[in-house]
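Q: I have 454 residues here and want to know how they pack in 3D. Can you give me a structure?
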Amino acid sequence: MKKKNQKKYYFTGIGGSGMSALAQVLKYQGHWVGGSDRSFDRKINRRLFSKLKKQGISLFPQNGDLISKELDFMVVSTAIEADSPELKKAKALDIPILHRAELLSRIFNRLFGIGIAGTSGKSTVCGMAASVMDCAGMAPAVINGGIISQYVSGISIGNAKGGNSQFMISEVDESDGSIVRFVPSIGVITNISRDHKEVKELNKLFKIFASNTKTCLIINGDCKETSKIKAANVVSFGLSRKNHIYAENIKFSAWKTKFDCMGTAFSLKVPGKHNVCNALAAIAVCSFLDIPAEKIKKGLASFKGIKRRLEIAGRKNNITVVDDFAHNPDKIEASLAALKNKCKRLIVVFQPHGYGPTRFLLDDLAKVFSLKLDKKDCLMCLPIYDVGGTADRSISSKDLINKVAGPECICSESRKDVLVRIKKMARSGDLYTVMGARDDTLSVFAKRILREIT
């Protein structure tokens, strides 16, 4: 029996990070939510689908059999092909089809929305600001691209949280152009760099986002591109003193970071200068919301990080294994900078995340590995992550390896090959980091590397 105001939403591809987050929030709001996913059919990523089920979300085979006129909306993402049997059936039945970003923006724009945008750092800034707002009792709804560690539970995936207030904080995406749909009360732009699109095209999208922002636009004043954005309501953050909000007395110890800002001493459980910048963005958001400094301090100190963002998979025999989402040049550079001073030798196991992105960023990727890895370090490239479809597969990881100069470079045919090599080469003081996006099995592989170290 359908409750008053309850809608029926069917997500095709519900296992995606953005899709699963939105599905959970809609379920929390009292709607019927169901969906399908190829990974569910293949019995991959069972833990994620088990958690969706525990929240009362219905899961079905992705064959179109469950698509009926009873549905109010079908929700799709950019990853859904036009020849999807579920999409075809929904069109035949005249079921309204919503893109994930369209639906999210509808919900977001009705609330006091805090939109976190930028090429890198979005998930972490979103998680940090949410942690502070939770600490301040503001109970925001949260939609994130990454898994916020402190939100993970027996039933919660960790990439979303239902809210009980007027506030929603959400990561917004420029890669598919959907960022222009959002009208935030507070907008954040962490940085702008070449990724998915050329900088010129990205600048157009971010300028629209900036003009859509209603009360306060928060930008990275140290970024060449974001600092060009002009608006009457701009607050800048960054490491340099020219910004409205900046850090002083930055100190790194083990995996923690300390710094001072606006007369308050802050402590983070995450490493790296880039995370200081992320924290400054969160401080800017929360200061505008008039959250007291002590609450901001407590909220940032309680932030446990984002899964697969410089996450320690484990330590063994004085060797550390790190699981990291870094996949574009900016993210890789930030991660390498944070890791370099934590080991005698850095071994990067990198899985390029798709043929198109690898081709687009090939020279930039080669440049960052060449400049940021030393002669003693090692870069191992796995085959490019293949998500299927009609991609042009005329590029390979070997094309990347051939352009990298400096560290030892190995083009591995398989993960098994990497494990064999690591078992032979591992020595005390090493740090191994598994880098790559979109493939959840990389976390499992990082744990496997840890087991192989003797």
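Q: Anything worth noting?
A: Residues 355-372 form the longest helix (18 residues). Residues 8-100 form a domain with the Rossmann fold fold (CATH 3.40.50.720).
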